Amino acid sequence: MKKYILITLLSVFLLALSACGKEVTASSAAVSDSLTVSSAGLAAGSQTTTPVVVTPIAVTYDQEDLVETDLDSAEATIILLQGDVVSVDGGGAVADNSIVTIQSAGTYEISGKLNDGQIIVDTTDPESVTLMLSGVDISSSSSSPIYVSNAEKVILTLSAYTQNTVTDEGSYIFATGEDEPDAAIFSHDDLTINGSGSLTVNANFNNGIVSKDDLKITGGNITVYAVNDGIKGRDSLNIKDGVIIVDAGGDGLQANNDEDPEQGYIVIEGGSLDITTGLDGIQAETMLSISGGEIALVTGGGSTVYAPADSAKGLKAGVDITISGGVFGIDSAADAIHSNDTITILGGEYQIATGDDAIHADTQLTISGGDMDIAKSYEGIESQSIVIDDGTIRVVASDDGINGSDGGGGSAMGQGPGGFETGDSSITINGGYITLDTGGDGIDVNGVLSMTGGVLLVHGPVTDREGALDYNVNFQMSGGYLVAVGSAGMAQAPSSDSSQYAVMYNFASVQQAGTLIQLVNADGDELLTFAPTKDFQSLVFSSPDLQNGDTLVIYTDGNQTASLTLDGTLTTGGVVGGGFGAPGGGVRPPRP
Q1: Is residue 514 part of a domain?
Q2: Domain assignment of residue 130, yes or no
Q3: Could you give the CA distance from residue 348 to residue 371 in angstroms, rounded to a whole number?
Q4: Which domain holds residue 370?
Q5: Minimum mean pLDDT among 21-25, 97-101, 540-544, 560-564: which range?
Q6: CB 109: neighbour CB atoms within 10 A?
Q7: Is 78 a member of any domain?
Q8: What distance in Å separates the CA atoms of residue 117 and residue 147, rounded to the nearest whole number?
């Protein structure tokens, strides 16, 4: 009886959340040290999933990266910007009209307005250079207003209670054969931005803030307007804290080292990020790791844009994305979360609307926690191998809700034995609470589907060319609660050699959305009360409560419709659709 109450209340609760928005607020999430993917429930001879061990990217922050309180402006060289000239009080820097060059390590406090000039750092000292921006307005008509030509490391400190502005114009003058600097704030070497003041960067030529090595942001209120990319660290971009707003014609945040497999990564540990881009929101050449923060992304004009000409993904990585926490609001023209290889999600809160896939990994996707509200997608979750161990997942998709495939865009219908592609994809559900509302298949896998635990509710398609469940090898059901409703033409159920009992009933006619379904056993216990959100003709139900020999009575809107006696692990009744447990298929809509 407790299990009946669980599934009834859960279906109402999840559907209500899918229908309404939710304010994004900060939250914390438990983080696992490692994740092992279970192969329990897979049939003999089918594909198993290699265990995944999550190894976090270690980012080291020096004390000077983190705080500004240790800075003593009394010991700093004072640089005063005075329109067309610069004055220097102290050693280590020289001024030539509107250009000041810093030649030695140390601390430099800069204030004032520079109409058309430049701050250049060029030193071979082995120590860091700290630039304290204490209320500056720096413009340059021909190059980067702040340019680090050479240094061990530069720390850009935004002094408390100050507003700082850096602006370039639409063209740069380069030395012969050169194409750098190419950003309003540009560093050839490591760059750190910290402090509690504000910085606005107006990048009218190309990029906003660029480091050719490691770029770290540990504080400050930073706003970047850029015609191309907003903030870039070639080797790495690391964000520990701060309030960051980016409006960019290209990518928002980027790490783009494509020559060293151990570089080109992005790590976000906290802060508030509000990013609007023409292309990708956050793009890492290799790995993207997020453990905290509040991240809002709008890419490529948002989810209402159909088939953007260029990549306009929300979170994107070439090798791996690992998310263990954070609050995300993503409105993307292309995939909301995309990896060319693997994705591991351990936690976080997600509100997603996308013109393409919500979460896509080319090879392997593991979800072990988190709260996901995918309000709009072409396909909700897609990868060649999908493992769901935990989490709350709500998906609205115009095509498939969860798709186990290589991402090639084909359906389960293929060229294998009997006219169907056998496939080596897999979907394994070991836990979690999942509700799917789909125009195409609810779950579609070109291979093996298995369920060992959790709750899966599918409001499937209304067309007979699609099914609530679509697999073409087998579906091993060994635990958990399954309710799948949809059309009857291609309807499938768990395989008859599963270890947990299931029933499948195809109604004689299409039932209207909102029809109340009840399953009651011979003792009068209600095993299921469920109201599908769309028209349906097929019902599939599996529960640990089902036992061989049980008699189930099906009611619709209080009227007895059928009575079934379980005579094996799969019991079917009603009209014949696409074949009970037979491979499904169909014609999917074109991918955006």
Answers
A1: yes
A2: no
A3: 6
A4: 1-56+291-409+422-489+502-592
A5: 21-25
A6: 23
A7: no
A8: 11
Tokens standing for residue 487: 């059309």
- Indicate left, alpha or beta for 97 from its phi (over 0: left) and psi (-120 to 50: alpha): left
DSSP 48-75: -PPP----PPP----HHHH-STT--GGG
Task: Answer whether 467's CB lies under 8 Å from 30's CB.
Answer: no
Pair of tokens at residue 433:
């609470």
Q: What is the pLDDT of residue 308?
A: 77
DSSP letters spanning 383-402:
EEEEEEEEEEEEEEESS-SE
Tokens of 488: 């009857």
Contacts of 177 (CB under 8 A, 6+ apart): none
Q: Each residue of 229-246: pLDDT tens digit? A: 999 999 999 999 999 999
Q: Which helix (H) or strand (E) holds 471?
A: strand 469-471
Q: Which residues of 537-565 are buried (b: 16+ CB within 10 A; e: fewer)?
A: bbbbbbbebbeeebebebbbeeeebbebe
Retrieve residue 549's tokens.
């020999």
- Asked whether the beta carbons of 81 and 110 are under 8 A apart, the reply is yes
* C-alpha to C-alpha distance for 40 and 428, rounded to whole angstroms: 9
Total tally of structural domains belonging to the chain = 1
- What does the radius of gyration of the chain's CA atoms come to, in whole angstroms? 29
Higher confidence at residue 215 or residue 45? 215
Q: How far is CA 355 from CA 335, 343, 447, in A?
A: 7, 20, 26
Asked whether residue 582 is assigned to any structural domain, the reply reads yes
Q: Which of 33-37, 306-310, 350-354 has the lowest mean pLDDT?
A: 33-37
- Residues 24 and 48: their CA atoms lie apart, in Å, by 37
| Residue 182: both structure tokens together | 């190419």
CB-CB contact of 457 with 18 (8 Å): no
Q: How far is CA 318 from CA 73, 258, 331, in A?
A: 43, 10, 21
